[in-house]
């Protein structure tokens, strides 16, 4: 909670004004029963109408000031909690954008969505409640006790005897509630994950007829969350009746003792009436404090989850000890030197093992291999999305670790296997906020073989693109993604299975256009089809994370049985086995 509360420091001046207004209104609330007791015991017996009218007007003015103070302070409290939550949410969002791939894998996307929405909402509600009641409720409680002591110390002792029991009840119930609310947030993450998976894969679910299965999975997650929420709320709900029982028992004792002392002339009726009013104020204050404890308990669990993200260190990708770039003149444009990497424990096996290769400017590297052989891992390491376990990767002789983030990103144009589109126009999705010249956008679209279908639309480059490009075909989407990657003239173009939806003719035209229009761009092409990589300067064949062979198409057909087998199967030169 400490990190979250630090966001209130810049708002301390506004909060002080808010607390001052709230303090004034609360004092007026406390003055009303005292004026009533004075009126009944001192003024009314005199029979003076002027004095009665004076004190009546005083009570009305106190009530008006109390009402105005509470209204103004509550509005200011809402504004302060809004501004603090906005800063928390923006910083949390920015931090999520800076997390490394490994940190994202650990936290999971659904959990981060929950922290950005539900958890920040809990913080907002709690900050507002603390400002509205954080001064008013304790002041009403302590002020009510103090005034009752001044009115009649004997009756006050009866009230004070209930406070230790109240404190014990709050302590025990809040401790159990905090554990339950932490579990609720974890189950909420699980339900968000299920909803996200179902919405993302809705077409697959329908195609396979698994809607009932997914409904059952959602029902189980929802019921588990519901049961946990009910248990947590049930625990915290026990606080209200427990406090009411204790306080009402104290109130009963006050009435009995007060009646006895009035009959003996020890105290006066006006004091008893005022005392009962203060007792009601104290009861309401205790109930408000109880509600604050419930919200603070829930917000503490949310604050811990937010702080877990904000406190994550920025991962630095340092070169492995003892690794230095090979001394070459001139250095290669891109070089992998004995690179090894494992997503989890290296003892369980590497996703990539002892990879070494070199590429000059303008060369094309084709990467091919069976599913799970480590093809995508190569480009993730090249973009420094994960830190290396061993080895070193250099760009123009410089280790990747020596480049700052913006400089590194400017080296790459990337098309991933599953890439994102945004609601807007074709131009917006190619430019992606980079404000690139129109000529560069059109050249990229022409090279990506997308210009024909773009100009065939009535709006051309201003043709609307729906969310996730639902109004475009698979081939059109891939061509726009390639145009996006080419538009900024990147020194290195990475195509991760980016032509799988293209026919052979379009694929060949794409490769030829890239070589003609971007001759200095180094291309790294990951593909499943041998025809897509056969014209590459170098072809890397991966087998379970290891280099099976590295060479040209002709060399691999001769020296690499795995590559030769893939080529034979895809070209139809080898008969398929039948069951």
Task: Describe what you observe in this structure.
- The strands form three sheets. A six-stranded mixed β-sheet has the order 6-9-10-3-11-12, sandwiched between helices.
- It has two domains: 7-310, ABC transporter transmembrane region fold (Up-down Bundle), CATH 1.20.1560.10; 349-411 and 492-497 and 535-573, P-loop containing nucleotide triphosphate hydrolases (Rossmann fold, 3-Layer(aba) Sandwich), CATH 3.40.50.300.
- Helix 5 (109-133) runs antiparallel to helix 12 (269-310) and helix 11 (239-263) packs antiparallel against helix 12 (269-310).
- It is an alpha/beta fold and 579 residues long.
- Helix content is 63%, strand content 10%.
- The protein has 22 helices and twelve strands.
